[in-house]
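Tokens as discussed.
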């Protein structure tokens, strides 16, 4: 660990200088040699570093959202190559490369704060060994060595011997109890943060290798913290416990206000949003408008929770718009106007217009002139047929049709086409 910390010695002086500046502020309040002054200085260092990493965290969120948009493509690849794991992994990596996404983007904040972590470890190790490092001079070094947090010196470790702990002015029992409690809290906060991400903010309809990696890290990271924690000084444990608590709170905020589509967190968020929108009749926040806009843009690709949200708005007489706003939808007849007429919805007006359309005429009706359409007007064809005089027909048409022609012959009157005719029987009255 000392070798790794020495690799980040270039950032040791800035980290030690920031700690000294915070110590001046808290030392004036709690006393320069107290554990509160030094402990709060380390906590303030963590908060300052995490504030500086917020842009990187936003980039991490965007990258995670990009991974979520690839879920349908991942599902197709998974189903297509479900019997060939190697080909499935190759196609997944090809998809990541084409879209410019990184499945390991969730590790970016950890990687970014690693130099500060090892620099702080180097500073606290120098306090334990009594050597000046960075901006910490002799008086500050003596003050830090006498500072205790719940009876444990800042530079003490769980694996220190009794003589080493006694040299720092503490007992071995106090050091091990304090460090053990802090290690358990640090591991538990890491596990809870990862479990919260996997159980609440993941689309469970799609299973990808990335999800399997996240599930594995959920159990690996706490074990790693427990193993390495016994060799961390108390000051480093304070640093790491603080950053874990910050990460947990930051993630809880993101899950509550910007959940992953298709996750349990989205179902809870849309349920709350439905209550707020139906009560107020509008969308208030910009973040809510962004989410409503995204849901409307999906159209038929909405998931189950998003469809329930749209249906709930429709039942409440509201309609989500493409710009993310919500307006009242006209579903029923409104109050009568000044002239006594009632305004109806567009759907009802279209239905009434369809009802007023004339019925379609059959072919025989069109050939024979048919009934007059609404309005009392007739077509040009029927006029021509009705105005034509009956005696204007050619004489050939008035003559008896020839046998074998397509028209009906005298057989219509009961006569046979050829041979002797059957005598007519007297009709019965």
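Sequence:
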């Amino acid at each position: 660990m000392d070798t790794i910390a020495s690799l980040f010695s270039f950032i040791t002086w800035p980290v030690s200088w920031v700690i000294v500046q915070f110590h001046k502020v808290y030392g004036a309040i709690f006393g320069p040699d107290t554990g509160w002054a030094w402990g709060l200085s380390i906590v303030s260092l963590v908060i300052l570093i995490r504030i500086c990493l917020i842009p990187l965290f936003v980039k991490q969120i965007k990258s995670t959202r990009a991974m979520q948009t690839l879920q349908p493509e991942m599902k197709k690849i998974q189903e297509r190559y479900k019997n060939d794991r190697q080909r499935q992994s190759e196609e997944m990596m090809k998809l990541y490369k084409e879209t410019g996404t990184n499945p390991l983007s969730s590790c970016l904040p950890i990687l970014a704060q690693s130099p500060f972590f090892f620099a702080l470890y180097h500073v606290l190790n120098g306090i334990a060994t009594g050597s000046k490092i960075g901006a910490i001079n002799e008086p500050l070094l003596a003050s830090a060595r006498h500072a205790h947090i719940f009876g444990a010196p800042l530079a003490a470790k769980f694996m220190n011997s009794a003589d080493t702990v006694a040299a720092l002015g503490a007992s071995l029992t106090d050091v091990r109890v304090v460090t053990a409690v802090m290690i358990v809290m640090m591991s538990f906060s890491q596990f809870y943060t990862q479990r919260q991400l996997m159980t609440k903010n993941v689309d469970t309809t799609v299973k990808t290798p990335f999800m399997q990696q996240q599930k594995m890290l959920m159990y690996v990271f706490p074990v790693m913290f427990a193993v390495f924690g016994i060799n961390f000084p108390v000051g480093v444990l304070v640093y790491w416990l603080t950053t874990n608590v910050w990460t947990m709170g930051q993630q809880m905020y993101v899950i509550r206000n910007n959940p992953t589509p298709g996750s349990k967190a989205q179902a809870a968020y849309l349920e709350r949003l439905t209550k707020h929108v139906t009560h107020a009749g509008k969308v208030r926040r910009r973040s809510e408008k962004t989410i409503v806009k995204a849901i409307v843009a999906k159209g038929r690709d909405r998931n189950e929770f998003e469809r329930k949200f749209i249906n709930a708005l429709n039942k409440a007489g509201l309609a989500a718009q493409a710009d993310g706003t919500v307006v009242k939808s006209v579903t029923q007849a409104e109050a009568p106007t000044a002239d006594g007429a009632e305004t109806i919805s567009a759907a009802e007006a279209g239905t009434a217009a369809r009802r007023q359309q004339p019925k379609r005429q059959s072919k025989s009706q069109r050939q024979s002139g048919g009934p007059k359409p609404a309005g009392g007007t007739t077509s040009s064809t029927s006029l021509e047929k009705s105005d034509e005089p009956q005696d204007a027909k050619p004489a050939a048409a008035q003559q008896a049709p020839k046998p074998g022609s397509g028209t009906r012959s005298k057989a219509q009157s009961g006569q046979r086409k050829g041979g002797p005719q059957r005598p007519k029987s007297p009709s019965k009255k």
